[in-house]
UniProtKB/TrEMBL annotation:
Keywords: Iron, Iron-sulfur, Metal-binding, S-adenosyl-L-methionine. This is DNA modification/repair radical SAM protein. It comes from Merdimmobilis hominis. InterPro entries: Aldolase_TIM, DNA_rSAM_put, Endo/Exo/Phosphatase_dom_1, rSAM, rSAM_sf, RuvA_2-like. One of its GO terms (molecular function) is catalytic activity. PANTHER family: ENDONUCLEASE/EXONUCLEASE/PHOSPHATASE FAMILY DOMAIN-CONTAINING PROTEIN 1, TYPE II SECRETION SYSTEM PROTEIN K.
């Protein structure tokens, strides 16, 4: 099998891993080296099936000793297997970089022989890139659960960002669908990476030229929809991971049925894309808007509203806290107003130092008045000619009427015949709610 056949197999096998971040570190070019990295991020392009292709996103091998029931590369599945050598993959990465096809590398792997051997192969690949080819570009590598701590540390000194997939939200789910893995085997290296990042930050303060360990941080991914976990459980777990391990991102991947099994959703089950979308919206609220998981969902309402995004749903359920006066409200409360994002809230704080604001001013600042109008007053007055009732608020925020109930709600598709509006695209790209 030549290297391009391997590339075809192993890039296709990597497409289900969504934890493909590509920013967070500055590294200037150097004499005799190739490439650099910028903290502001990489400009992404997308293939026809929606994959990000700014990074060479590839598996070292799709051969695996594990038999995770949800995984395309499980050992019991009949697929073509391939594996690079460290030299092949390093040279391929450099050649692609020189041709401006890619701006960095995202490297993961199936577990072949054992976790330590797999980790050693990844280390050899990254060592060739960093030392032999003097590559200074961006590298994101997946840590291998069960690998020796010393190998994990070597990997972190070669990569910009590391990640380790938590896979499923519960230990019970892992026992059922991934019996070769345990919660401890995943959380232990996650804790190690977190500790090393913290220690490294302290070392760099004391010793300016100390080697950097995963300077762009670490992240994780979990599969949504393969098990019957509530959205509240997933959101609580996400919050706990951020707080305990200081993750940069938690990624969510809607489960795509690929085989018939009694423990998995049937093959005709549609991937829960809307649920995945709601989780990302709620994740944004946790990280940037000051919300706690228990504010977004609770035991009485453990799953997301399919009609309203989490922020709008919270606002509708807490109308007693609105309207807020835009000229006096604190920053934390402005962030809770639908239609006001982080940037527009900061602009409001700056603008109102020069004088009181009115609704036309808010529109110029970037506030989405279609949503914010129900929750704000300017100079003590509501939006002119505003018709206010809970039903009107829900209908306007959802963007449509649902005469037959919420069961008719469908997920917008990237390939829908109706083109998305500029506002839709901006919301998707910026995360503004």
């Amino acid at each position: 099998m030549d290297v391009f056949e391997k590339l075809t197999i192993l890039t296709d096998a990597a497409k289900y891993d969504v934890a493909c971040t590509s920013s967070g570190v500055d590294r200037a070019g150097a004499a005799g080296g190739i490439g650099n990295a910028a903290a502001c991020g990489i400009c992404h392009s997308f293939s026809a099936d929606g994959r990000c292709i700014s990074l060479l996103k590839v598996l070292f091998t799709n051969a695996c000793i594990y038999d995770c029931k949800y995984c395309l590369n499980r050992r019991s599945n009949d697929v073509r297997r391939a594996a690079f050598t460290p030299q092949e993959l390093a040279q391929l990465t450099i050649e692609f970089y020189r041709r401006n096809y890619i701006e960095g590398l995202f490297l993961s792997s199936g577990v072949f022989k054992n976790p330590d051997y797999t980790c050693e192969q990844l280390i050899k690949t990254l060592s060739l890139l960093r030392n032999e080819y003097s590559f200074r570009g961006y590298i994101h590598v997946k840590a291998i659960p069960g690998a020796d701590a010393r190998l994990i540390e070597q990997l972190g000194l070669l990569a910009d960002r590391m990640s380790i997939n938590i896979e499923l939200p519960t230990s019970e789910g892992l026992k059922q669908l991934a019996p070769d893995k345990t919660k401890q085997s995943i959380l232990k290296p996650m804790g190690l990476i977190h500790s090393r990042i913290q220690e490294n930050a302290h070392d760099i303060v004391q010793y300016r030229h100390a080697p950097k360990f995963a300077p762009a941080g670490h992240s994780t991914q979990m599969i949504v929809g393969a098990t019957k976990d509530s959205d509240l459980h997933i959101l609580r777990l996400t919050q706990a991971l951020y707080r305990k391990y200081t993750l940069k991102r938690v990624f969510f991947s809607a489960y795509i049925p690929m085989q018939e099994h009694a423990l998995l959703p049937s093959l005709d089950t549609k991937p829960p894309l809307l649920r995945e979308h709601r989780l990302y919206q709620a994740d944004w609220l946790l990280r940037f808007y000051g919300f706690d998981a228990e504010e977004i969902l609770d035991d009485a309402h453990p799953d997301f509203n399919p009609v309203l995004d989490p922020k709008c749903n919270w606002a509708v359920n807490h109308l007693d806290q609105f309207p807020v006066e835009v000229n006096r409200a604190p920053y934390e409360m402005l962030l809770r107003v639908p239609g006001i994002g982080v940037k527009s809230a900061k602009r409001i704080l700056i603008a109102r130092k020069s004088g009181s604001l009115d609704f036309p001013d808010l529109k110029r600042i970037g506030v989405v008045l279609k949503r914010a109008q129900f929750f704000l007053t300017c100079r003590g007055k509501r939006m002119p000619q505003l018709k206010f009732s809970p039903e009107t608020v829900v209908r306007t925020l959802s963007g449509q009427s649902f005469p037959q109930g919420i069961s008719d709600v469908t997920q917008l598709s990237l390939f829908a015949s109706d083109s998305p509006t500029k506002e839709d695209m901006q919301k998707c790209l910026s995360g503004q709610l």
